[in-house]
Amino acid sequence: MFFTGEHFEATVIRLEINTEEIRTLWRLLSDTEQQRANRFAFDRDRNRFIVARARLRELLATRLNVLPEAVELTYGVHGKPALARRFEDSDLRFNVSHSEDVAVYAFSLGREIGIDIEVVRQIPDADDIAARFFSQRENEAYLALDPSDRPLGFFCCWTRKEAFIKAIGDGLYYPLDSFDVSLAPSEPAEILRIKDMPGSESGWCLNSFSPFPDLIAAVVTESHTR
Would 166 be classed as within a structural domain? Predict the structure, then answer.
């Protein structure tokens, strides 16, 4: 399944496949990835990791015109994945997220990118989480929603904030209350503020889409190439 938006393209896949296919995909992983896979306690989680990483390698290999086994990855200070230096001429940026048995991959040329996906569901302490991690403006918007819209509003906000901090590469080291995103299901996906700057002037674009029922994804990309 493919999605395209402002400055990006995304691919969505299911992670549940048969055992024979998993054996084939296992051979595409690096030694480090195989070691990580072996640390999972449960077969389901290990298999999902194998499929997710192998599919990433296949998707990158197609864009780089190399074999999946030849793809080399590096990681930023806070864990953001990137292509190794020998692929820097491609200017390809990417990001990955998964929730349960679905993985989503986002790609962009010359623009930093972040993506997040979540299953929309009821969380007993959602109001407390929103009060703790959302900005004041976001929390007020969340509490103003009809109770039936709050699960979707919660995960609209969560995925959009997660996609932004993944795009900038700071992860949860970036203060979550220092920027605002829209979250009401009836409103467009937007970055409303970053620190003292209006979102429209921040240099970042936000898109949101639903690849399957009860799933919501968000993608953040730079407005301008580097």
Answer: yes
On whether residue 78 sits in a domain, the answer given is yes
Show the DSSP H helices in 4-149 as ranges.
19-26, 31-38, 43-64, 126-133, 136-143
Same domain, 122 and 87: no
Residue pLDDT, tens place only, 67-121: 999 999 998 887 889 999 999 899 999 999 999 999 999 999 999 999 999 999 9
Task: Specify the length of the chain in residues.
Answer: 226
Helix (H) or strand (E) holding 11: strand 8-14
Residue 226 predicted with pLDDT over 70: no
Mapped onto helix, strand or coil, the DSSP state of residue 96 is strand
Give the separation between CA 56 and CA 90, rounded to whole angstroms: 16
- Whether the CB-CB separation of 119 and 111 falls below 8 Å is answered with no
Domain that holds residue 192: 116-222
48, 91, 127, 140, 156 from 120: Cα distances, Å: 20, 34, 15, 20, 9
Cα–Cα distance list, 25 to 38, 60, 116, 174 (Å): 14, 15, 24, 35
pLDDT digits (tens, 9 = 90+) for 60-82: 999 999 999 999 999 888 788 99
Tell me which residue of 117, 80, 112, 107 sits closest to 216, measured CA to CA: 117
Q: What percent of the chain stands above pLDDT 90? A: 86
Nearest-angstrom CA–CA distance, 222 and 205: 6
Non-local CB neighbours of 81 within 8 Å, separated by 6+ positions:
73, 74, 75, 94, 95, 96
